[in-house]
Amino acid sequence: MNDSSAMIRLLDEFHLGRITCLGDLMLDKYVHGRVDRISAEAPIPIVRVGRSDAMLGGVGNVVRNIAAAGGQAQLLAVHGDDDAGADVAALVDAMKNVQAGLLLAKGRPTTVKTRYIADGQQLLRADHETTDAINTADGATLLDQLDRALAQTDVLVLSDYDKGVLNDDVLAAAIQRARAANIPIVADPKRTDLSAYAGVDFLKPNRAELAAATGLPCDDDEQITTAARWVMEKCDIGAMLVSRSEQGISLVPRDGAPVHLPTRAPEVFDVSGAGDTVVAIFALALAVGAEPGLAAHLANLAAAIVVGKVGTAAVTGDELANGILSADLIRSEDKMVSAAFATADTERWRARGLKVGFTNGCFDLLHPGHISLLNEAKSHCDRLIVAINDDASVRRLEKGDGRPVQSEAARALVLASLAMVDRVLIFSDDTPIPLLEQLRPDVLIKGGDYDIAGVVGGDIVQAYGGEVKLARFLDGHSSTAVIARMGNHSNDGD
Questions:
Q1: Domain 4-325, CATH homologous superfamily name and number
Q2: What fold is seen in the domain 340-492?
Q3: Using an 8 Å Cβ cutoff, are 194 and 89 in contact?
Q4: Which pLDDT tens digit goes with each residue over 117-143?
Q5: Residues pairing with 179 in the sheet
Q6: For 221-258, how does the pLDDT look when each residue is reduced to its tens digit (9 = 90+)?
Q7: What's the chain look like in SS3?
Q8: What is the distance of C-alpha 181 from the center of its chain?
Q9: What is the strand order of the sheet 72-80 is part of?
Q10: For 76-125, how does the pLDDT look when each residue is reduced to its tens digit (9 = 90+)?
């Protein structure tokens, strides 16, 4: 079922997917700073604020992910007549491939979640919101908009954060109207009474929500399956997609065997909005004809990418493609990643105050010169990324007949086994310049047979404030020399 070529074909069709998203819209704020001391007024940290970011949350984050992945989204939601509401409307208006039917609810505050983060650690979340149901008139307007949207929709997403938009009447009517139009429904629930979602095709609770709704343990595959089947039977749900944090995702259909997918994230930094990403990519894959199992694989991959980012984030189509193409390598060795995963890693490491280093080369037939370079490279940074030329680019570099001796996968695997190497990725360009522009490492390290001015990409790194370092060169050690000596020994034996 984990068919890389089939998933790539799906990505190529994502631009045709049309998703209508109805639910609770909110503003996610992130206040970043440093903590240097404890308050004298109370035993609490004092955050010295550095910067603030704001992005769409709730159903807005679902729409962000659909648009970022290349799909078309219709957003139906409510915001208040306040500054946060104006910010939300502006963020929605700035998105491409999104049509918005936003209602301005006078006197109703826009939901705002403000997270305070210091040195990569979330210290506090402050919520400004109401959970009161929207008024009858606004509910009727949303449903009228839904009727028009369903005529040009492939999948309906109901994003329920229990903030009052999907009240009992609106939720029941939305499900009924989508079923009448024969439109598949994917719902992300926050209620503990899951019978309110009766009639949806796919319900996506997380593990804790499923356990709370059923009163059953949900700690392993068998327990997840039992609880999900209990919900489907009692609540008239077509299938269950259960997000399980570090345990991955489970797809439990009404008929047939469940699919339990392990997590694909090398390292988790921030789970904010990961459920929105799962819903968005799963719905978009369904919209372009994917079988539910394949859609779940894509959603699981998207979740692995997004939890490595800081804040409520979206996953792009390019990141998904890179993740798909590197899937086999990731399963073989967690250090071997795509450029998309490496980018997420660098963002996470920098948020923790770590220095990121980068070096590159062919690394054909690892020898003492390579080990010396890598050891010295690691001495200049906290995390070291090694990029290797793929087989085709090695041949283009005119390394000689029969090069590379080792395939790109073999070379990557050997490097990934070294303790000083934190990530390995394979690139196909003749130079690492596109990678340097994407990753923006703090320090670029090359062998001492170069000079600073001759290091490819060194000017790019220095332009944004990074450093270029030269590692000590060990004379007489090179892959070419090793291969030549091997050839001489072979001739001696003829």
A1: Ribokinase (3.40.1190.20)
A2: Rossmann fold (3.40.50)
A3: no
A4: 887 788 899 999 999 999 999 999 999
A5: none
A6: 999 999 999 999 999 999 999 998 777 899 999 888 99
A7: CCCHHHHHHHHHHHHHCEEEEEECEEEEEEEEEEEEEECCCCCCEEEEEEEEEEEEEEHHHHHHHHHHCCCEEEEEEEEECCHHHHHHHHHHHHCCCEEEEEEEECCCCCEEEEEEEECCEEEEEEEECCCCCCCHHHHHHHHHHHHHHHCCCCEEEEECCCCCCCCHHHHHHHHHHHHHCCCCEEEECCCCCHHHHCCCCEECCEHHHHHHHHCCCCCCHHHHHHHHHHHHHHHCCCEEEEECHHHCEEEEECCCCCEEECCCCCCCCCCCCHHHHHHHHHHHHHHCCCCHHHHHHHHHHHHHHHCCCCCCCCCCHHHHHHHHHCHHHHHHCCCECCHHHHHHHHHHHHHCCCCEEEEEECCCCCCHHHHHHHHHHHHCCCEEEEEEECHHHHHHCCCCCCCCCCCHHHHHHHHHCCCCCCEEEEECCCCCHHHHHHHCCCEEEEECCCCHHHCCCHHHHHHCCCEEEEECCCCCCCHHHHHHHHHHHHHHCC
A8: 32
A9: 98-105, 72-80, 18-23, 155-159, 185-188, 202-203, 239-243, 249-253, 259-261
A10: 999 999 999 999 999 999 998 899 999 999 889 999 999 998 877 888 99
**Amino acid found at 197:** Y
Sign of torsion, CA 326 329 331 337?
Answer: negative
Q: Where do the structural domains in the chain lie, given as residue ranges?
A: 4-325, 340-492
Q: Active-site residue among 201, 270, 276, 364? A: 276
**What does the alpha-carbon distance between residue 300 and residue 274 come to, in Å, rounded to a whole number?**
10
Phi first, then psi: what are they for 189, rounded to 5°?
-90, 155
- pTM here is 0.68
Amino acid identity of residue 334, one-letter, is D
Annotated catalytic residue 219 = no
Angle in degrees, 0-180, between the axes of helices 4-13 and 292-306, rounded to the nearest 10: 80
